[in-house]
Amino acid sequence: MSLSMSVLLAIIVSLAAYFVAPRYVLGLVDGDRRKLASLPKQFGLSAALTVLLPALAVAGVGSVIGMFGIGLPYVVIAVAMLALLYSIVQSRPDFIARNRAERLIGFVLIAASGVAILTTIGIVFSMLFEASNFFRDYHWSDFFFSTEWSPNFRGNSALGIIPLLWGTLYISFIALVFAVPIGLFAAIYLSEYASPRMRSVAKPAIEILAGIPTIVYGLFALITVGPFLRDYFASPMGLGDSASSVMTAGLVMGVMLIPFVSSLSDDIINAVPQAMRDGSFGLGATKSETIRQVVIPAALPGIVGAVLLAASRAIGETMIVVLGAGAAARLSLNPFEAMTTVTVKIVSQLTGDTDFASPETLVAFALGLTLFFITLSLNVIALVIVRKYREQYE
Questions:
Q1: What is the per-residue pLDDT across 189-224, written as a single tens digit (0 to 9) for each?
Q2: Alpha-carbon distance 227 to 224, whole Å?
Q3: pLDDT for 250 beyond 90
Q4: Do the domain assignments include residue 70?
Q5: Together in a domain, 170 and 98
Q6: 200 vs 194, 222, 386, CA distance in Å?
Q7: What's 188's domain CATH number?
Q8: Lowest mean pLDDT among 23-27, 153-157, 370-374, 380-384
């Protein structure tokens, strides 16, 4: 028997406990619910959690540390059955199952939070470990301050991050310049001007953009946007003849970011109390003046947070850059030249038949760690701005 099968059986046993425990306790009082200290469904929930949580804990810990070897699935089932018997015996009319269920649910929530925190810590430490191996073979000053990126698996590589950071920030800047005004104006229209019927149609239509796979955006950039910009802007202006460019990736990425900015800003603007609008109208302000002088300043901290969230999303994008901007690492101000980003080079350095212990491969972890701290800094800045300028409304 496999471990996954034993976990599935434990889940089935917990479902059985959920239905058996209420009937058992009702049988003890001849169906008179007034004699029970808790509702029948609370007895069922308490019994189900009492069965499921110990079985999952044994399965998780045992699989991580190799406990019990091949006998672990049978141990999981045995724990589930013992917990089932315990939960049934414990289901007495005077047992306050509500409190037990609340404590178990609280434990589940704490465990879920712990998994998220431990996962983040594990990611950081794994990158730190591999990045430290990289910096033992390649000097940190050459990595952070060199303006040349030329990996060579035969040795003598130039692995400077500055060209990659420049491409990342340049493309993200163009994307935000395109996405933020359109997304913010769309949010203002939806929250302040659109009728309920129009809003019910327009908002889901805008949010569809967030569900399109990024590879589809990349193909759109490669086949449509890139050739259009090359033929009608770059070539006539003498700025380049390539369909892959910073402008191509930036514009398509901006389209992808519109629903992030629009949806978040719309929710934030709607959270501004209607009393503030009514007070502005009572003082003689027009609708546009109220939006410009009252609503937007009140919602500004949240809007800034939405923009920084969109910036983090842009910095971490890969497929649009691969297909729309190319893979050339260079420092240039020409938006119609091909460039690349940190995420693209992380993928390229870790794919193919490469020596995992070489600096040319380990540099991907140094790049990932740098990108992690950049996005973390953006999130911290957003948090500081929101906390500093947040106003409490009653």
A1: 999 898 889 988 888 888 888 888 989 999 999 999
A2: 6
A3: yes
A4: yes
A5: no
A6: 9, 33, 29
A7: 1.10.3720.10
A8: 153-157
